[in-house]
Each structure stands twice: as structure tokens, then as C-alpha cells.
Design a protein that fits this description.
This protein is an alpha/beta fold. The protein has six helices and seven strands. The chain folds into two domains: about 35 residues; about 170 residues, Glutaredoxin (3-Layer(aba) Sandwich), CATH 3.40.30.10. The chain has a five-stranded mixed sheet with strand order 5-4-3-6-7. Strands 1-2 form a two-stranded antiparallel ribbon. β1 and β2 form a beta hairpin. α3 runs parallel beside α6. The longest helix is centred in the N-terminal third of the chain and has 36 residues. Belongs to the SCO1/2 family. InterPro entries: SCO1/SenC (IPR003782), Thioredoxin-like_sf (IPR036249), Thioredoxin_domain (IPR013766).
Length: about 230
């Protein structure tokens, strides 16, 4: 009886060892698969088709690629915001309006997740453009920022010349994907897209600001971009 009990105990320990070994092998294979599936660098985007371009950071091709041009806007503190505000910074940008009763509320909640993820990281900022700048004055933006827990100088809500904001949205950030449909200043700019901009003012990603998985990917991509 003792011998039989010993054999059973040995068999159990052997089986347990095999199972643990298999589990570790599977974990290792999954980790290797995850690493090998990642791209070395995030793609670059330069037009409204959002066709990815695989450029080498620092190359001449990258330096000549589409960049966000000069602009001058005002944030919720009344400070002037220009591209220099984001020198050596990664930033996420979108377009909204404070009186929006629809998608802006969900977009706000998801952008708050981005703010929270990088709250202590001064190299990552957020830029939200008002598409109703004549309504969204500096005091209105300040009230909106206070109400939604927006951190000053981390997340800039900006207002300014409508023509300039709409030109940035449509012709520089390409946030509306209505390919082949011409629009002018009289056509309202309304989009759920978030864009990821690198330290050299290049567009490196587009994300659905209403989708939690897409926003989670945005946060992951920001971390990857910080390593470039």
C-alpha cells in the first residue's frame, strides 16, 4: 500500500511539473509573438486618405514629410498657443465644441483617460480645438475646463479664427474622411477622430475617440512613440 501511495504521489508531482513547464513555454511563446508582431516605428500619415508611410525617423524623407504648419490660437487661460508650444512634445489633438450634446461628451470621457495616463508626464500634451470659436470664448472654455477636470497647461482648449481652425482640421490634420466631398467654411466640422502628433509635428496615428479599444491603442502608441 505504501509503495502504491508513493508511486501515485510521484506521478502527481511529475504531472504537475509537466503542466507548469507547458504553461511557461506557452507564456514565453506568446511574449515572443507579441514582441515580433510590433512594428519598429509607428507609420506617418500625410493626406486625407490616411495611407500609412513607413519612414525612418530622422531620415531626409521624414524631414520633408507633411507637418502641421504655423497657427496662432488662444487657450482657456488666455495664453497664445502656437506650434512652439509643442516643441519637443508629443500631443493628441481633436475638434469639439462646449455646447455639443452628442458625441463630444463621450469623446471628453475618453480624452480624460489619455490625460490620466500621462498626467505626470510633461512630454505628452493634449490640444482640443473649438469648432464654434465665436461661442466658445476664453471664459466659456475656462468654465468647461474646470467642470471637466482639465489640467491647465497639460490640456489646451483653444479658440480663435474660425477659418484658421477649420483649415487646420480639414487640410492639415485631415480629421474628416469624406474623400472627394469638397467642403468650405459654411460646412460644420464635426468629427470623432483623435490624432497623435509626434515631436516633429508629424501625424503618427488616427483613432476613433468614441471607441474604448481605439483609445487604449492610442495610449499604447504614445508609449511606443516616446521610445523613438
Amino acid at each position: 500500500m505504501k509503495l502504491s501511495s508513493g508511486i501515485k504521489k510521484y506521478s502527481f508531482l511529475l504531472l504537475l511539473s509537466v503542466l507548469i513547464g507547458c504553461n511557461q513555454t506557452v507564456k514565453k511563446e506568446n511574449q515572443e509573438k507579441e514582441v515580433s508582431s510590433r512594428v519598429e516605428h509607428l507609420p506617418y500619415f500625410g493626406d486625407e486618405s490616411f495611407t500609412p508611410h513607413w519612414l525612418e525617423p530622422g531620415s531626409q524623407e521624414e524631414k520633408a514629410f507633411h507637418k502641421i504648419p504655423d497657427y496662432e490660437l488662444l487657450n482657456q487661460l488666455g495664453d497664445t498657443i502656437t506650434p512652439e508650444t509643442f516643441d519637443d512634445k508629443i500631443y493628441v489633438t481633436d475638434f469639439f465644441f462646449t455646447s455639443c450634446p452628442g458625441i463630444c461628451l463621450k469623446m471628453m470621457g475618453n480624452m480624460q483617460k489619455v490625460q490620466e495616463a500621462f498626467k505626470e508626464d510633461p512630454s505628452v500634451l493634449i490640444l482640443s480645438h473649438s469648432v464654434t470659436p465665436t461661442i466658445d470664448s476664453i471664459p466659456v472654455l475656462k468654465t468647461y475646463a474646470d467642470k471637466n477636470g482639465i489640467i491647465a497647461n497639460k490640456w489646451h482648449l483653444v479658440t480663435g479664427d474660425k477659418q484658421e481652425i477649420y483649415n487646420l482640421g480639414r487640410n492639415q490634420y485631415f480629421v474628416e474622411n469624406d474623400l472627394g466631398v469638397p467642403k468650405d467654411i459654411n460646412d460644420f466640422l464635426h468629427t470623432e477622430n483623435f490624432l497623435l502628433i509626434d515631436k516633429n509635428k508629424h501625424i503618427r496615428g488616427i483613432y476613433n475617440g468614441l471607441n474604448r479599444s481605439s483609445v487604449a491603442q492610442l495610449i499604447t502608441d504614445i508609449k511606443a512613440l516616446k521610445k523613438e
